[in-house]
Amino acid sequence: MENLQVMVVLFIIVVLGYALCKLGYMGEDFDRKLSSIVVDVTCPLLILSSVMGESLPDRTLILPLLGVGFLTYVLLLVFGFFVPRLIAADRDDQGMIGFALMFANVGFIGYPIVSSIFGAKAVFYAALLNMPNTFFIFTAGVMLVKGEYSVRKLNLKLLFSPAMIAAFVAALLVALDVHTPEIVARPVTMVGNITVPAALMIIGSSMARLPLHDIIGSPKVYVASVVRLGVVPLSLYFFFKECGVSDIVNEINTVVIAMPVASFGTMFCMKYGRNPALMTEMTFITTVGSIFTIPLITMLFC
Predict the structure, then answer these.
(1) Residue 118 · residue 56 · CB < 8 Å
(2) Residue 279 near residue 265 (C-beta atoms within 8 A)
(3) For 193, how many CA atoms within 13 A lie in the half-sphere containing its CB?
(4) 28: closest CA among 194, 268, 206?
(5) So where are the chain's domains?
(6) pTM: predicted TM-score of the whole model, two decimal places
(7) High-pLDDT (> 90) share of the chain, %
(8) What is d(CA 113, CA 295) in angstroms, rounded to the nearest whole number?
(9) What's the rounded Cα separation, in Å, for the pair 96 and 275?
(10) Three-state SS across 27-61?
């Protein structure tokens, strides 16, 4: 019940963004600027804040967690670059669907859910598992959104994006067992916390600019949503279970991957001048659907 309440609360913030757009407080230009702030400022600080607390994860688990995290996204590359061909014929749609299948809304929704299920300390483990997400979302994710599938077109500057730099610094802080002074951690955490409501309101505002029939979604949106919320997390759960990965690591990783489509999809579309309609539809449908699927998936752990 608590997991359901968390999902409902976050969905209400999406509805708030929808209402603010209809009332004229948000709009395309505002959303584009706010998206850039979230991508380049608040999200990097959110990453840093995840390792700024009184206690840090067991350092002996750092490498296993990072290993599972990287292997997870290597496997997700198959879903991202090959499965969409079975769902849509249009190349641009394939890229959008590929992004949706690969990247879950971990930082915005995943951490609160992980905390509610496994306790506050588990957020640190989720952050470590999510670190490879930062690398892949700013490389493979951008390639999918922009429709550029060649590695030769990869902009190496993305490896030095604010989010990537924050991930590197976070890993260093954990590895060296550095406890950040509160006078630094507090403002970093406060600004980083802007990420969650800002990203969700951007999704709601984007929805407000779509015709009703687009919000409801097309068949390919529902097929992609079923794969995103069901097939992807369950496949990875049973794969790692067979590989002998510890239950706690596998369970947290599964919950992280079971989140709805990453909010970055919509923000990347705006930042790179792509039509966000399909991405917003999938984000909306999976956000609603996850209210029911996440509690069902967590029943596997009982």
Answers:
(1) no
(2) yes
(3) 8
(4) 206
(5) 2-19+49-296
(6) 0.75
(7) 23
(8) 10
(9) 10
(10) CHHHHHHHHHHHHHHHHHHHHHHCCCCCCCCCHHH
Given a contact cutoff of 8 angstroms between Cβ atoms, the answer to whether 104 and 257 are in contact is yes
pLDDT single digits (tens) 80-103 = 889 999 998 888 888 899 999 999
The two tokens of residue 279 are: 């991405």
- Residue 19: is its pLDDT beyond 90? yes
147 CB-near residues (< 8 Å, 6+ apart): 91, 92, 95, 274
- The class of domain 2-19+49-296 in CATH terms is mainly alpha
Residue given tokens 């919320």 in the structure block = 229
Q: Which of 37-41, 234-238, 280-284 ranks highest by mean pLDDT?
A: 234-238
**Cα–Cα distance for residue pair 171/224, rounded to 1 Å:** 33
